[in-house]
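Form 12-C: Joint structure prediction
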Amino acid sequence: MTPGGKSLKLARRLKGATKYAILDAVSPIVAVLFAMAVASIALVIIGKNPFQVYATMVSFSFGRADSVASIFFKATPLIFSGLAVAVGFRVGLFNIGVEGQYLMGAFLASWAGFAIKGLPGYVHLPLVILAGALGGALWAFVPIWLKVKRGVHEVITTIMLNHTAFLLLHYLIFDVFMDKSQVVVGGAGSPRVRMPPIELSARVPNLHDALAVFGINLPAHAAVNWLLIGGIALAVGVWYLLWRTPFGLELRTVGHNPRAAETAGIRPQVVYFKAFLLSGAVAGLVGLSDLLGYFGYLDIDFPRGYGFAGIAVALVGRNSPFGIILAALLFGFLSRGGLGIQVLERVPMETYVILQGLIILSIVVASEVVRRYVRAQQKKEEAAAHAEP
Amino acid sequence: MGVSEAVLRVDGVTKRFPGVVANDDVSFDVRPGEIHAVVGENGAGKSTLMKIITGLYPPDKGEIFLRGLPAAFRSPRQAIAAGIGMVHQHFMLVQNFTVAENVILGAEPARRGLIDLREAARQVAELCRRFGLKVDPLARVEDISVGEQQRVEILKVLYRGADLIILDEPTAVLVPQEVSELFEHLLTLKEQGKTVVFISHKLDEVLRVSDRITVLRRGRVVGTVRTGGVTRQRLAEMMVGRPVLFDLRRSANPPGDPVLALEGVTASLGGREVLRDLSLVVRSGEVYGVAGVEGNGQTELAEAIMGLRPVDSGEIRLRGENITNLPTGEVRQRGVAYIPEDRHRRGLALPMTVWENAILGTHRSSEFASRGRLDLRRAFRATEESVLRFDVRLTSILAPVQTLSGGNQQKLILAREFRGQPAFILAAQPTRGLDIGATEFVRQQLLSARDSGAAVLLISADLEEILSVSDRIGVIYNGHIQAEFSQDEADPRTLGAYMTGARTRERKGAAGR
Ligand SMILES: Nc1ncnc2c1ncn2[C@@H]1O[C@H](COP(=O)(O)OP(=O)(O)OP(=O)(O)O)[C@@H](O)[C@H]1O
Ligand SMILES: [Mg+2]
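Section 2 - Result
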């Protein structure tokens, strides 16, 4: 065995890997185009001109600064929920419970937001955010405990706890923490079913001031807030955790092959436990952008469905933190553009929902096909580059 | 020209993967009714070549002729339709289907749109009779032995009418008895007019059963030779490109203090005792070989030591310290290296990169982690060192480990486990799937670890390996060490008698009870 004649050039290797990454990144774009083509068929069937519909979607979404801001606002919770689902997927667990976890996170944050008074913002807000994470982690604790100790599948328990969370929230808002101080004007209607408003010290400021520095002026009603930046920072943090820390290495190893991890001295059960609680903690933050940056109180009509959307975001973003940011923005755009075509093109609401689902599905399928195609092409290209002298 | 007499002719096939030429202008032919062996070092391109022939990969250049006609298969399905079938090293069977169901899967005999299972069983039984393959068509695959599973794979290709059968390292997973049976089957196939191509690293086997041998080295054909006209030494030279020494250098080495001691260890699996009152001692500076027919508790022995399987009673001590039922991580921290027998299941995370796999297990050591952060630079450097030391052939340490050839995956595990001077090395089937050069290298490494004071427990189904490396040999049968021998008093016949249970319970040097 002679190791001679072998020069292991790190630089060359890194270059090869970058090429992989770039070619790989192109595939989702191709996939979106493919998805739009498929969706066109549906549009033609209902007698709409796909080109016009798409054009409206784009011009409506990007025509005005507040519309763009709305895309970012819609994307904010999806970044958190996508990350929560992805952390689960990376360790080999399917966290369908993000839905329930973020409701509980929102509840605990809301409670910490109105019950604690008199703190300065720089103490109160972090405390409230922590309460959100804690709520999510608590709701993730039961399923992962049952999984690790009793072998109960997490999909079943998390789905059940989603229902439990919603019903519990109902009870807590309606029967325990209902805001009794609401003044109903002139007997018109009834008071909102909601918890007391969150102290101003725990509200998340919007991005208006920061953007004004760059000459971007948003109208007052735009809701995009600092949690967008928080979500992006968290994505960076998750990336760092996964790819640059020993725990991240363990998490991914357990995700790929728990038996090999075990053989290497890692305890898969412990890693499952920590990773799932982390997933739950991230999930607990999903609702905060709406809660602390928009409504300012938790009511019975608090937005739902972010948890399930997070599964699609994680799939489209391929469980990569940066892919998830892009996927969340894409979904934000679809949702905003969907509103546009509903109003301007009179595409009925149902069609838009079908359209959105179709696009999600196509992206997931197409990106897989495209990824394989790119791999094959890339091998050929590489081969040509290594042609005989 | 001999073109018309070749069943299969490969002409100038080239296949490149990023950074490596796996097949470089490969040409050879296979004659009807012959058993043709393909040999070469790990990563020489054998598996790739077979995958090209069966349509799993397209070649970049070159052509393949089947019975004189150009054949460019784009899928294994097309290849099998043309009569070429392949048995892969890792079986692809549905565990809870019966043998017959597995055989017909994808080519089911149907009657009015329904699968005719009775007809299937009949056809499979008929095939078994015709080719002398002993396996029960109605048995479930999960219940049959590895050797039988392999027969099912062979039946699958025969059922689809293959007359050229390719086997990739068929003997790597078999015990000696099963190897002999496989070879009888191959000879029967040959008598029935089938043609066989098989890959192997074991030159003795190749010389025993093949008619001709094609040697690959680093993607190129070195030559095709008639089996009668070549020696093992010559073959090895062709493969490696230089003379190969078959003698291990081993020095006399007085053993030191006990490092690993098992005392009356008992373990069970689903109510059945898999280890019974098992005792053994491995001293510093010695290799203790565990010989035995597979399935007699070897896997469980290794897993019990490593804390991967609970021990019911008895004690395991490492340098005097009780490590019974300690978690694996803590066992490893005490200077234990472990080479698991099943590299895909226990050794590697296949989709992860080479460097990640290379530091797995030591990723929390101060060498690679500081203040909660992985030191990539050091991890890369350590990986490159390991790769060089064990001559792991690869294109990039950033590539997923699954792009490495089978033998190179094994070498990577060895390189990982030999790092950092372990005090105790537990090596289970360490040379499985390795070429002769790498095999000798690994055995030499085991010996030099022993010379520098490590204790080595070698578990191997390969009796030759046990005899050539061990200082002491224990025969395991039915979960118990039946007898122990020193190296000079062990001979294959006696060992064999204990391995099969023909003789039991006698401890050399402990005659007084
Ligand atoms: N899918 C792949 N992608 C990239 N490289 C590959 C791929 N498959 C094989 N290779 C490379 O091609 C070379 C030949 O591999 P191959 O599996 O054919 O070797 P082999 O002769 O079967 O070796 P072994 O005896 O170890 O199984 C190796 O360097 C391997 O790393
Ligand atoms: Mg191979």
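Section 3 - Comments
Confidence is low (pLDDT under 50) at residues 507-513 of chain B. Residues 176-191 of chain B form the longest helix (16 residues).
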